[in-house]
Amino acid sequence: MDLPVEKWKLYAKQKWTSLEPALKEKLCPALSLRDCFLLFSPLFQSEDEEYLYSLARNYCVKKDPSMVLLYKAEGNERFRKKEYRTAGMLYSKALAHTEVSTPERAVCYANRSAALFHLDQFEVCLEDIGRALEKGCSHGLYPKIMLRKAECLLSLGRPQEAAEALCSLESKMSAEQSLAADSSQMLLNKLGQLKAKACQGSSFVRPPALPSRTQKGLEPWEENNWISCASAAVRLSVSPSKGRYLAAARDILPGETLVREEAFVSVLCPGEILLLRGSADTTLDEPSDNEDLNCHHCLRRLLASVPCQGCSYAKYCSQTCAQLAWKNYHRIECSLGGLLLTLGVFCHVAFRAILVAGFAEVNTLTRQSCGDDLGEADVAKVSASKEQDLASVPGCDVDGRYRSSYRAVFNLLPHTEKQSPEFLFLCSLSIAALCQRLEDAHLAALVCGKSISESQEGAKAAELKNLGEAMLKHMLQLRCNAQAVTTLRESGSGDKPVASSEQVRLAVGLFPVVSLLNHSCDPNTSVTFKSTTAEVRALQPIAQGQEILHCYGPHKCRMGVAERRKELLSQYFFECQCLPCRSERGSSSQRSASQHGVFRCPACQAPLQGEGMLHCSREACKVQISEDRLQHQLHELQQLTKTALELLDNSQPDRSVKLLLRCRLEARRLLSPEHLMVGEMEDHLAQAYVTLGKWQEAAGHLHSSIQVVEAHYGPSSIEVGQELFKLAQVLFNGCAVPEALCIIRKAERILSVHLGPQGGQVQELQEMQACLEESLGASTAAGGRLLS
Ligand SMILES: *[C@@H]1O[C@H](CO)[C@@H](O)[C@H](O)[C@H]1NC(C)=O
Ligand SMILES: *[C@@H]1O[C@H](CO)[C@@H](O)[C@H](O)[C@H]1NC(C)=O
Ligand SMILES: CC(=O)N[C@H]1CO[C@H](CO)[C@@H](O)[C@@H]1O
Ligand SMILES: [Zn+2]
Ligand SMILES: [Zn+2]
Ligand SMILES: [Zn+2]
Ligand SMILES: [Zn+2]
Fold first, then answer.
1. Mutate which of 552, 561, 574 to test ligand 2's pocket (most atoms within 8 Å of Cβ)?
2. Which terminus of the chain is less hemmed in, N or C, by CB atoms within 10 Å?
3. Among 479-493, 631-645, 679-693, which is the least confidently predicted range?
């Protein structure tokens, strides 16, 4: 969960312990959310504030001019070493610390455009050049970047525009004598060369890079009349036992899109390193994480970020995203950056939700809910009496429609009465801190619009309380309703022949329509994300009337029933009644635990059993070994693997392979064959062989990796799809045509169910297939000719 930083949690815990019993007792008889907030928020005192701010200062997000110089210098250094990707990243970091419309900003854009040019990212390079020009780049910079612009345009096969760029450079040089005088002979020579190229037109251009896979139009679908963002194939139902749930309105086929919903609100999760380190900038060469890699508004992967006008933290993919974010929420969040990082993502989501919803809406709904404060029991009663009467479903609009709106968000259950008092206290204190800060910084008026600044002091306080209450509610709702927004991130440089990628958690969002889905440990659907849009697809045929379920996290392939039960109960407050849970509970509940047992007997490879001191599960074998020792060996293995991967990154694949082969042997000796680490080792080896161009070896190791992934995630899981995708690429590159075609089809079958027919990887597979079939066709045609 994305709660506040440890130190603040600890502080709140101590404060809770020291509260007078009389006060604590007030909480006991299920207090309403409003009373809870009114009871706790006044306890936030100035000494608490002081402590919290001392923590928040660790996460400074202010712009720092000295960091511009530092990052830029390091960027230039890396550029000289031809490490263009790293250089570009460092220029982006430098940019984040520059102020709007300053010469430094123009220089940083110009510098980054040079790195992008060398990465063959001509389109993005042109964007950066445009930004540098518009920020009023200095005299000396102008000729250099105009030449770069012309080169870019030539590379993109646009000689006409290149000629125009050169023309305007020349006319500027003749108009401003100093410009011409300052330009070196080298520049002038280059100008001449480029002019000649531009005149010759497109015959000399480099072939344009592969067209970037732009998002094709969405698949057509029939939207539901009663639930926005859902397909007509689903139906919202209410039953006394299950509450509200989504069911199939007709028979549904695998791969069908059932829900396509943009997040009502989402907040990018900062990388762990940033949070642990406790300051935004200290070292220059640490790995980049979410905050540097993805747009803080739309979550798209960043190549050339646009910095926020106010802070060094927020970065965007485009000016459009920067402006949208600023208008909708960031103009208020910007100066609170450090505090929001300290209070954690849940608190931040709660805050952004009220900013996005707008004060008027929040105020109206809070006041309404205060009047008709239906407990959950009442809701159940209402739904029981009028089954199928959807107007009684909380969150529906008056016309009986359920929309992906603030009203729907507002009506998600906070489960106040099931949360621990200590947790309620932590949340209340954190929200109170945020409210206090809004007031102190005179931001409250901004949040609330005119109405609050004009109103009386008393009314103002009441309105702030409404906001606080709403935020507290959202923070509590997130415990059960937070949806992690995930994406596949290509690891490494991203320009390898075989993409290696990992699933990462990018953000936390609220999706009121996705929230209608109930949980199963063996779900019928799969959720994937494009930007901030969630797509829920059917994994299997779902018959009319069956409930549509997705997995909240505890999946039957990854956890035993006892573990799942514990997690679902503690985080989501319910006992899972899904099929696997009911059947596994009856059978030997030890089964799944031993299935995922970690260590193997060093003598005979049978699984080890027990705790602390492990012993071999084979009676005859008397081996005993302490778990600590095995854990130590495992740790050493992990370190060794890390070294091997670093070798691979530093272009020493041969040495990397040697080391990885040793690691693999050790992993197989130590761990059960289904252990994920055994699979990862095979995957690393495949990657190393790919670097060496040894496709056959790479394919062999991928086959082994796929076996492990299948055992772990199930044969039609997206994880298996990803591994098959890699294998398809390897076979394609290795020209193993028949096998490649077979794997491509298999990968396509699995991935199109999870990602839809328009999914990027699905399209890539289809392109590979077409290419292979063409080559097959050509060779048989040639063969035919030979025969005749
Ligand atoms: C970055 O800009 C500075 C100042 O204009 C320049 O001296 C340096 O060569 C540039 N570096 C790159 C890689 O373009
Ligand atoms: C989800 O289903 C379980 C039974 O599997 C039930 O106990 C729980 O109340 C349901 N939750 C909702 C929100 O309908
Ligand atoms: C709860 C439920 O209906 N789950 C089903 C989802 O689909 C799989 C495969 O058809 C079934 O095995 C589950 O029972
Ligand atoms: Zn964006
Ligand atoms: Zn900002
Ligand atoms: Zn279950
Ligand atoms: Zn043994």
1. 574
2. C
3. 479-493
Is 577 close to ligand 2, i.e. is its CB under 6 Å away? yes
Rounded CA separation 463/454 (Å): 12
The answer, yes or no, to whether residue 587 has pLDDT greater than 60, is: no
Q: Which two tokens stand for residue 665?
A: 């042997």
Can you give the pLDDT at residue 321?
96
Q: Residue 516 Cα, ligand 2 centroid: separation in angstroms?
A: 11
Query: What separation in Å is there between the alpha carbon of 577 and the centre of ligand 6?
Result: 6
CA–centroid distance, residue 61 to ligand 5 (Å): 8
What residues are paired with 231 via a beta bridge?
A: 223
Which residue type, as a one-letter code, is found at position 484?
A
> 85: how many CB neighbours lie within 10 A of its CB?
17
pLDDT at 73: 94
Looking up tokens 């050790």 gives 666
**Residue 178 in domain:** yes
pLDDT digits (tens, 9 = 90+) for 364-387: 888 887 654 444 444 444 444 444
760 found inside a domain? no
Number of domains in the chain: 1
C-beta contacts of 140-148 below 8 A and 24+ residues apart: 140/182, 141/106, 141/107, 141/110, 142/169, 142/172, 142/179, 143/169, 143/173, 143/179, 143/183, 143/187, 143/191, 144/110, 144/187, 145/110, 145/113, 147/187, 147/190, 147/191, 147/194, 148/113, 148/114, 148/117
Per residue, the 3-state secondary structure of 708-733, as one string, reads: HHHHHHCCCCHHHHHHHHHHHHHHHH
DSSP letters for 314-361:
-EESSHHHHHHHIIIIIHHHGGGHHHHHHH-HHHHHHHHHHHHH-HHH
**Apex CA 423: angle with CA 532 and CA 565, to 5°?**
70
Q: What is the pLDDT of residues 551-578, one digit of tens each?
A: 888 888 777 888 888 888 888 888 888 8
Residues less than 5 Å from ion ligand 4, measured at CB: 295, 297-298, 317, 321
CA distances from 134 to 100, 102, 283, 314, 585 (A): 11, 11, 31, 21, 66
The domain spanning residue 156 has which CATH number? 1.25.40.10
pLDDT digits (tens, 9 = 90+) for 655-679: 999 999 999 999 988 888 888 888 9
Structural domain contains residue 100: yes
Least Cα distance to 502 among 313, 384, 675, 676 occurs for 676
Check if 242 has its Cβ closer than 6 Å to any atom of ligand 2.
Answer: yes
pLDDT tens column, 456-500: 666 777 888 889 999 999 999 998 899 999 887 776 544 556 666
Spacing, Cα 248 to ligand 6 middle (Å)? 20
Q: Which domain holds residue 154?
A: 65-200
45 lines ligand 2 (CB under 6 A): no
User: What residues are paired with 243 via a beta bridge?
Assistant: 239
pLDDT at position 610 is 81
pLDDT band at 29 (very low <50, low <70, confident <90, very high): low
Q: Which of 77, 78, 107 to mutate to test the pocket of ligand 1 (most atoms within 8 A of CB)?
A: 107
632 lines ligand 2 (CB under 6 A): no
The answer to whether 634 touches 627, Cβ cutoff 8 Å, is: no
12/41 Cα distance (integer angstroms): 12
DSSP string of 506-546? EEEEE-TTGGGPEE-SS-SEEEEEETTEEEEEESS-B-TTP
- Which residues are placed with Cβ below 5 angstroms of ligand 5, an ion? 308, 310-311, 314, 334
Q: Please state which of the ranges 60-74, 367-381, 437-451, 535-549 shows the lowest mean pLDDT.
A: 367-381
Residues paired with residue 488 on neighbouring β-strands, in sequence order: 503
Nearest ligand 2 atom, CA 576:
5
Whether 269 is in a domain gets the answer no
